[in-house]
Amino acid sequence: MIRSLAFFLLATLASYNQLQAADRPVLTVALVSTSWNTGLPTAVARGMGYFADEGLEVRPVTLATSGPIMMALLMSGQAQMVIAGGVAILRGIAHGAPVVIIGGELSRMSYALMGAKGVKSVSDLKGKMVGITGIGGLGEFAVVESLKRNGLTKDRDYTLLNIEGGTTARMAALRAGKVQAVPLTPGQRVQAEKEGLPVILDTRDSLAEFPSTVVASTREFTAAHPDQAVGFLRALSKAMDFIRKNKDKAIELGKLQGMRGDLAVERKALDYYADDLEIKLTPSNIAALLKIVGSSEPAAKYFDDTYLNQAVGKK
User: Class assignment of domain 112-206?
Assistant: First the structure.
């Protein structure tokens, strides 16, 4: 009897929660990467009920795909928000996509340039080889610009080698002595540090004005649903505050929301980027990114801070 009543109450509560969710507008947010630094704020905002507090039902979809596909998802209405690399979003807008950046997500590029054993400083890279994946990509820019700001010029002081196969292939090349340095994300950095590999430089410090990932939507959607755009950003901001203050709990919430990975590694990696989780973004940040794509157009074509200003004005 008691067990039957318990099942009845659980079923009733589930139905009630479903009805409540049905009353809220559903936002599909497309995440361009499986990385925790991309998905954790959304996971925490869901787990802590911050989206629900804003009257939203948010459904994240992680695709780990390219910028053009993200643009297509937005313009087709299959996703209302995208969290992706700022450069990819700018390129889509430059090619005519009616999309606009409305806020930030990761305020700095979180690459660490890791060296082979014995390579401890930027000066040690003179005459050496640096391995990257993807000529013309963000990783190459981060390496070349960071080293330039630290006194080394590509082709004069060091050589770039494009290594296909991602992190595994780059690390294999580093261990084999084929290259003497490679750029790694926070989670990858943790693994490399376990092997005793040194950090030569951190792009978070060298390239502080360049945001890594941003929040974007279509101009049509934000104009038609400004309250949802503001609520989405406000909930993300609350989640970011929570992450900075409760890192262990944030990792637990990420796992409960379906994020995968080595939790010990992700917890350590969080120390490297937690302070960079920030929805605030400025026209000067966008202007810095526009230089990467070779554009001198005004930031206003790409960035509308209307919803951001409302979100940060009321947390």
Answer: alpha beta
Query: What's the alpha-carbon Rg for the chain, to the nearest Å?
Result: 21
Torsion angles phi and psi, residue 202, rounded to 5: -115, 120
- The C-alpha atoms of residue 140 and residue 115 are separated, in whole angstroms, by 16
Give the separation between CA 68 and CA 313, rounded to whole angstroms.
Answer: 33
Amino acid at 262: D
Cα–Cα separations (whole angstroms), residue 122 to 13, 91, 180, 210, 213:
59, 31, 11, 21, 26
pLDDT in tens, the chain (315 residues): 433 433 333 343 334 344 444 577 999 999 988 889 999 999 999 999 999 999 999 999 988 666 678 888 888 899 999 999 898 899 889 989 999 999 999 999 989 999 998 898 999 999 999 999 887 777 888 899 999 999 999 999 999 999 988 888 999 999 999 999 999 999 999 999 999 999 999 999 999 999 999 999 999 999 999 999 999 999 999 999 999 999 999 999 999 999 999 999 999 999 999 999 999 999 999 999 998 888 889 999 999 999 999 999 854
Topology of domain 25-108+210-313, CATH = D-Maltodextrin-Binding Protein; domain 2 (3.40.190)
Half-sphere exposure of 12 (CA within 13 A, CB side): 6
